[in-house]
Amino acid sequence: MSNSYLLHEEAIGYSLFALKDNSLSVVADGEANQASIANFNFFKDYVKLLSIAPFPNPTISLANQTAISEGKLHEYLEAFIEQNLGSEKKAKLAVLDKTHLGRAIEKRWSNIVTFSGTPVVEISRGVKLHFHKFASVDAEIAVEDIEKAQQGLAFAYSRSAVKFNANKSSNTIIQASAMLETLDKDINTYAMRAREWYSLHFPELNTLVKGHELYVATVIVIGDRSSILEDEESMLQKLTEVLQDELLAKDIVAAAKQSIGCDFSEHDKQQLMMFIKRLSSFQNYRTQLSHCLKKKMQTVAPNVNVLVGEQLGAKLITKAGSLVAFSKNPASTIQILGAEKALFRALKTRGKTPKYGYLFNASIVTKSSAKNKGRIARGLANKLAIASRIDAFTQNPSSEYGEAMKKQLEERHAYYEHGQKIQFEKNAVVMERIADNVEKEAGKKRKRKDITPDNVNEDIEEKDVEEEADKKKKKKKKKKKKK
User: Fold this and answer.
1) CB 186 within 8 A of CB 282
2) E-assigned strand segments in 20-63
3) Cβ count near 391 (within 10 Å)
4) What's the pLDDT score for residue 482?
5) Exposed e or buried b for every residue in 160-172, given b needs 16+ CB within 10 A?
6) What are phi and psi of 73, to 5 degrees?
7) How much of the chain is in helix, strand and coil states, percent to nearest 5?
8) Which long-range contacts (CB under 8 A, 24 or more apart) does 18-24 make?
9) What single string gives the DSSP state of each residue in 82-111?
């Protein structure tokens, strides 16, 4: 055996194999030799198990597997390599990940040189295939233990891969946004059906009360129209509390006295009121879900929330798939999110491409004139691209960035709409100032050169000296040319 080794990781632990001098050339030489890797009796003549270090518990196994996938050198692996190769003068170590793990190993040990390539992949494939035989013969590890370790690590690694921070996850925002959209459609449909149904009994109420929520609340208070005639004063007081409008309550009472609606049987009235109360519960749940989405957006994407509001912001994140995916989109893509059909139709027919998608519903775009909607939508998309990246990757979440960018957009809107002359501040300067404020609040001090009047004067004097020296050089060159 030479001083060439192979590092192999399994669910049960790390193992180190010694490679025969010509093992790499044998494996890489022709399909016949590669096929013979499947034969354990042939393969063991070229590869020998030197050492194996089983993981003491599943937690360490998962930590090492995560480190390997990220190309990092874990403490357990570092101790394993130090124990087996640390004392060697010079060793060659075959690894599958030369770029990350290999560099980390070479940086840690100057006496170890890592290498990889097709022969290393083929030998690793053979070791993977025959590992249970190596482990059972040389290390006395049962095959059942290896299979249990593989299954346990697979479940643990999958759980860790899909695990997310509940406070920073955009998955709940996506689900809440989709649920709100569905609820809005269903509530609108149910409310129209409730109006039609109750209008058979009290048709005048449909024209007096416009909003669906107020209408449902009013129907729950009134119930049967005859209850108004039985106790007019108490019913007037209840309606005033619900509607917050005494004149409208009086109009309803007056309309009930002269209504042309038909009477319901007790069974029909019971079914109608059950439906109305169920609709009211849907409306209440919709309100609660909207508040929940607002709080979630303020936590997960505070700057996007400030710029476009919680519902439109959640809709954009839902369309992109996640907050991180949304942050990776350029401003041009954000601007036309939701207008994909119009975009591809325009590209196909060589017509005009859309100027905005979902951003058309943003308040700053809707209040702009027709000729300026495209400009404002483009500016809003630029700010959203910045805001989403701050929300997705910053360590100190703050809505100050979004508030500053919203102010810039409003100034730009005032300039386009009314021609107000405003001294625009550069975006880099604004971001730098806010970053300082945010980090000060977080108790951190940014490392940068302090600017003082003395420093400014020194810089000006240095520039003046340099300019004078350049002028003297130019004069000398001109004199030489004249001579």
Assistant:
1) yes
2) 47-54
3) 29
4) 54
5) eeeeeeeeebbeb
6) -95, 110
7) 70, 5, 25
8) 18/47, 18/48, 18/50, 19/46, 19/47, 19/94, 19/123, 20/45, 20/46, 20/47, 20/48, 22/46, 23/47, 23/123, 24/119, 24/120, 24/123
9) HHHHTT-SSEEEE-S-IIIIIHHHHHH-TT
The pLDDT value given to residue 278: 94
Report field, pTM of the whole predicted structure over 0.70: no
* Residue of 446, 285, 313, 471 whose CA lies nearest to 391: 313
Which structure tokens are listed for 298? 């303020």
* Per-residue pLDDT tens over the stretch 329-357: 999 999 988 888 888 888 888 888 888 88
- State the residue for tokens 């058979």: 200
What's the pLDDT score for residue 284? Answer: 94
One-letter identity of residue 275? F
Q: Which residues of the chain have pLDDT under 70?
A: 1-2, 22-36, 161-168, 444-483
Q: Distance between alpha carbon 196 and the CA centroid of its chain, in Å?
A: 44
Centre a 10 Å sphere on the Cβ of residue 304 and count the other Cβ atoms it contains: 28
Amino acid at 335: Q
CA distance 376 to 177: 25
Tokens of 92: 């060659």
Which whole-number Å values give the CA distances from 267 to 197, 216, 227, in the listed order? 14, 20, 17
Provide the 8-state DSSP code for 263: P
Name the DSSP class of 36.
G
**Beta strands 47-54; 13-19: pairing state:** antiparallel
Contact 91, 97 (CB under 8 A): no
Pairing of strands 4-9, 13-19: antiparallel
Point out which residues pair with 115 in neighbouring strands. Answer: 94
37, containing H or E segment? none
Q: Alpha-carbon torsion 296, 297, 303, 306, what sign?
A: negative
The phi and psi torsions of 10 (rounded to 5 degrees) equal -130, 170
Please name the amino acid found at residue 32: A
Judged on CB neighbours under 10 Å (0-12, 13-18, 19+), 482 is: exposed
What contacts 386, CB < 8 A, 6 or more positions away?
401, 405, 427, 431
